[in-house]
Amino acid sequence: MYPQADGTAGIDQLALRARMELTFELQQFLLEEARALDEERYEDWLAMLTPDIHYWMPGIQARYRADERRTPSRSAMAFFDDTLDELRVRVARTRQKTAWAEDPPTRHCHIITNVEVQLTATSSEYRVHSCFANVRNRNEVEEQVLYGRREDLVRRTDAGLKLARRAIYLRQAVLLAKNLNTFL
Asked: Transmembrane ranges (predicted)?
């Protein structure tokens, strides 16, 4: 421990180092996931998910501050409310000849930042907050940017880190994109 200006003991250096290493490990996991999505390595991405994954992105409503319903309800409309099987179907859909919105394919760039890690009551699970921007380009002039915050539950398994839950909160209340052929 090291002394603070007020004379009190500071943060335990070993605990600080362990927390920094854990944060770095989880940040690397999120960056690897983003690269897999950018490179359309969807099977690799699916392998990064737990069998009980819940992938949820609610619709966003502009609300006055006086409105008591500040957070989206799980019972309200969601753009995504998927299990692993449903995510597999969405991935398979991108490979179909009838997926006209993906021919030519969309070029993605996922930017992940502001990664913050919280310990949970379960020693093998971590709550990970992050911000994202998903820049999507298609054809010559089509460009959309989706941005927002994510709340993930990442689980340590025998096979490594896996994403068990993801809640995606877009900042746009109105989506101007022609489609949502993306994973965030």
From this structure: none
CATH number at residue 34: 3.10.450.50
User: pTM of the prediction?
Assistant: 0.86
Asked if residue 162 belongs to a domain, the reply is yes
For residue range 144-184, list pLDDT tens digits in order: 899 999 999 999 999 999 999 999 999 887 777 777 788 99
Judge contact between 34 and 26, C-beta under 8 A: no
Domain count, the chain: 1
Q: 130, 128, 126, 129: which is closest to 112 by C-alpha? A: 130
Q: Which two tokens stand for residue 50?
A: 């737990």
Q: Which tokens in the block code for residue 109?
A: 């760039």
Domain extent at residue 158 = 13-62+77-97+104-170
Q: Hey, is 88 helix, strand or coil?
A: helix
Q: Measured between alpha carbons, how far is 169 from 148 in angstroms, rounded to an integer?
A: 6
